[in-house]
Write a structure and sequence with these properties.
With 325 residues, this protein is of the alpha/beta class. The chain folds into two domains: 200 residues, Rossmann fold (3-Layer(aba) Sandwich), CATH 3.40.50; 102 residues, UDP-galactose 4-epimerase, domain 1. Helix content is 40%, strand content 18%. The protein has ten helices and 14 strands. The chain has a seven-stranded parallel β-sheet, with helices on both faces. The longest helix has 22 residues. The chain is globular, with a radius of gyration of 19 Å. The structure holds uridine-diphosphate-N-acetylglucosamine.
């Protein structure tokens, strides 16, 4: 009864791997190491280097390890990159997911957890966002995620195959035990960049847009600690094992922080001022993204442990310090 974690050497995937191992659940990681880092999951998990699109390798891995469930993290995640390279994104996020789902059907794997995104919702949808809110993904990245959601839906209608789709809001922070964290060398995320500024590795934090229709003019996001998100995956997995029907869940805390509020939080944590530079909006950034997490709380009993902005910031800075040491 092993769980196959694709993209398990990446940021969120590695947290899920540790969460599974911490409770004694057998895991095999499949990662092509295009952005993942082998050391991120150390020697603790069984590791297969390879691609999700390699059907023969997948089937061998599933049979060799007795895999009965898949958590599919592998994919490309940078929105502007997806605009510049749509074919690459549809290849990595849609075509390869298709191969993985097909391999599951061929080998009798009936349970599947999929990483989706809050970016599938329409920009003018009512906040906080419920799972049923209107979907209008605008970037190839978001569209590729919604396409795979549809694929899962269609497949589960005609096969003995159930899924849970988790739509992530803004994932941040790092493993409280310091085993893994955000290690991607190209930092675009606010929390990662703020941690780098806090440690003097970037000269200042850019604030992208101060004229949004928000209380302080800067973008508002629902930051969720990556360990709470990893825990949500385990609950989703257990629910599928127990026979729960295929469902979509938002993963966020249901409250938002502006860019300025995050910067203030960093100042509280480090005890001195954070250099910031105000600039124009970043193309494609919506003003506000806040989840309604009622469904996952009710259906899966998800209880966040790290819903505190200073805790999230502190863990991001701790990891940044360790990562670069
Ligand atoms: C992130 C995810 C996206 C996901 C979304 C869900 C990535 C690359 N992005 O996007 O996949 O769908 O969450 O909510 O994984 N900002 C600054 N200065 C910076 C960086 C960011 O002001 O240096 C601002 C942005 O304009 C935005 C907020 O901070 O208002 C968060 O930005 P970011 O951390 O990049 O995440 P999202 O763009 O929201």
């Amino acid at each position: 009864m092993t769980t196959l974690v694709t993209g398990g050497a990446g940021y969120i995937g590695s947290h899920a791997v540790y969460a599974l191992l911490d409770r004694g659940s057998p895991v095999v990681v499949l990662d092509n190491l295009s952005t993942g880092i082998r050391a991120q999951v150390g020697e603790v998990a069984a590791f297969v280097q390879g691609d999700v699109a390699d059907r023969a390798l997948l089937k061998r891995t599933i049979l060799d390890y007795g895999v009965n469930a898949v958590i599919h993290f592998a994919g490309s995640i940078v929105v502007p990159e997806s605009v510049a390279d749509p074919i690459g994104y549809y290849e990595n996020n849609v075509s390869k997911s298709r191969e993985l789902i097909a391999a599951c059907l061929e080998t009798g794997v009936k349970r599947f957890i999929f990483s989706s995104t809050a970016a599938v919702y329409a920009e003018d949808a009512v906040q906080p966002l419920e799972e049923g809110a209107r979907k209008v993904p605008i970037s190839p990245y978001a569209r590729s995620k919604l396409m795979t959601e549809w694929m899962l839906e269609d497949v589960s209608r005609v096969h003995d195959f159930r899924y849970h789709i988790l739509r992530y809001f803004n994932v941040a922070g790092a493993d409280p035990k310091g085993r893994t964290g955000q290690s991607h060398p190209v930092a675009t995320h606010l929390m990662k960049r703020a941690a780098m500024v806090a440690l003097g590795r970037l000269p200042h934090l850019d604030i992208f847009g101060t004229d949004y229709p928000t209380p302080d003019g800067t973008g508002v996001r629902d930051y969720i600690h990556v360990s709470d998100l990893a825990a949500a995956h385990l609950l989703a997995l257990d629910a599928l094992e127990a026979g729960a029907p295929s469902t979509v869940y938002n993963c966020g805390y249901g409250r938002g922080f502006s860019v300025r509020e995050v910067a203030k939080g960093v100042e509280r944590v480090i005890g001195h001022a954070l250099p910031v530079r105000e600039g124009p909006r970043r193309l494609g950034d919506p003003p506000v993204l806040i989840s309604d997490p009622s469904r996952i709380k009710m259906a899966l009993g998800w209880k966040p442990r790290y819903d505190d902005i200073d805790t999230i910031i502190r863990s991001a800075i701790d990891w940044e310090r360790r990562f670069n040491a």
